[in-house]
């Protein structure tokens, strides 16, 4: 299906990506790399129905060999900002014929802005908004190797808030940043639970990150 949208708008984001300059070994850098603009050339060229019909006439008369491939641009962007954002970090890599675990620390923020990774026409972002903020509320960490290990979790506990609960149940995301960021972090390992600082959480080797939307 040929899109009639302005092709230049297809690669526009809610916030300027060029000003990011993300630090390596960070979630921002991972997102930046995942959503980067790619050029498809040579063996990766895109089959273009419009170009093919322009050269060989109606589609019904075109054989499989009569196809026109063209250079193209490809970019993965977020078109619908979720209420709950789950980021799964790939913590393994190929080492010869074996898989080995990636143990290096990946930096992640307590509040993250997804606007540089969202399409300019993001479906559930109000017109004029240039921020899509999320607050961290859970982290899963794995210790050990690819063959064995142990999972633990960091979870933020907040005081009960009926107003916030109503917003979540109705699928709305208008809670204030203060309501969602405040809270006490706990480290959970099997039956052991103990309070920890935010700095302890942010220094963990995250495997799964859970964020909830602020704006």
TrEMBL record:
Alphabetized, the UniProt keywords read: Hydrolase
A GO CC annotation given for this chain: cytosol
The terms under GO molecular function for this entry are: cysteine-type deubiquitinase activity
Residues annotated as domain USP: 1-214
Does the keyword section mention Hydrolase? yes
Pfam families tied to this protein: UCH
For this protein, the record's CDD domains field holds: Peptidase_C19K
Q: Which GO terms describe its biological process?
A: protein deubiquitination
Q: Which domain of life is it from?
A: Eukaryota
- Keyword Hydrolase annotated: yes
- Which PANTHER family would you find in this protein's record? UBIQUITIN CARBOXYL-TERMINAL HYDROLASE (PTHR24006:SF852)
The protein's name = UBP16 hydrolase
> From which source organism is this entry?
Melospiza melodia
């Amino acid at each position: 299906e040929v899109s009639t949208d302005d092709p230049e708008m297809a690669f526009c984001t809610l916030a300027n990506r060029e000003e990011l300059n993300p630090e390596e070994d960070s979630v921002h850098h991972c997102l930046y790399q995942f959503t980067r603009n790619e050029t498809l050339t040579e063996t990766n060229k895109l089959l273009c129905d419009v170009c093919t019909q322009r050269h060989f006439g109606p589609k019904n008369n075109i054989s499989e060999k009569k196809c026109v491939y063209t250079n193209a641009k490809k970019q993965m962007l977020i078109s619908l900002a979720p209420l709950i954002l789950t980021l799964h970090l790939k913590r393994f890599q190929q080492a010869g014929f074996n898989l080995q675990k990636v143990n290096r620390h990946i930096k992640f923020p307590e509040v993250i802005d997804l606007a540089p990774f969202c399409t300019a026409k993001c479906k559930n972002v109000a017109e004029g908004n240039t921020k899509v903020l999320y607050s961290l509320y859970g982290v899963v960490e794995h210790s050990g190797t690819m063959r064995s290990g142990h999972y633990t979790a960091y979870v933020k506990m907040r005081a009960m808030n009926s107003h916030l609960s109503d917003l979540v149940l109705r699928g709305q995301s208008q809670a204030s940043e203060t309501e969602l960021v405040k809270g006490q972090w706990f480290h959970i390992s099997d039956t052991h639970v103990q309070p920890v600082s935010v700095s302890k959480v942010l220094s963990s080797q995250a495997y799964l990150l859970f964020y909830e939307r602020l704006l």
